Fold:
Amino acid sequence: MDKYGLIGYPLGHSFSISYFNQKFQDEGIDAVYENYEIPSIDDLNEILDSNPELRGLNVTIPYKEKVIPFLDSISPEARAIGAVNVIRITHEGKNVKLKGYNSDVIGFTQSIEPMLDKKWHKKALILGTGGASKAIDYGLRNLGLETVFVSRYERPETIQYQNITPEVIKEYNVIVNCTPVGMYPKTEECPLLPYEAMDSHTILYDLIYNPDETLFMKRGAQYGAQTKNGLEMLLLQAFSSWEFWHEK
Structure:
């Protein structure tokens, strides 16, 4: 029986395990998907050694960047982003080969593209500077938007939350939340933005999918903003993972 799985730490909120095991059951695929909660990326080799049936892994926080030195090859897209969230495992004799991909960018661009209107949507704010934000930046640029990262801290080439004025919101009217702010159980929190400057041309996209509607989305919707959570992106990512694992 083939095995697939997820590496990360912690893994309490994993979407993948239920999605893939349901898929295997529904489609009669002789495989199982398991969570591998590893406190250090150095434990990856032990996972591979003790599970020779592994054919693919998903990678989540905090290992999307740390896993790269363990890989034999990496797709051009994942290299440009600097983060990997899908690993294809192949066996060549006694050698195990690992190839890294990034499905974040595919899932995100396919999910947000129908919301964009080239006439109105030219610039985007990306909230957060972690691993996921790099893929979001890559995806938005591919869709032709200018991007700026937003951080709580003074960092090169970022804007700080306290400097986001109503004028900035009007200009950068696509806003993607790549932070955990507002995620269950802290659902009463949201990024500090001048929501009152938003209107029907504002798009708020939240990578969070629990709860379904975050306070970030609710507050924008009060002023007419279009909103979307990260669930569709996850489904599209999962579909992409399967494609990468079975690439000819």
Observations:
- The helical segments are 16-27, 44-50, 76-81, 104-112, 131-142, 166-171, 215-221, 231-245.
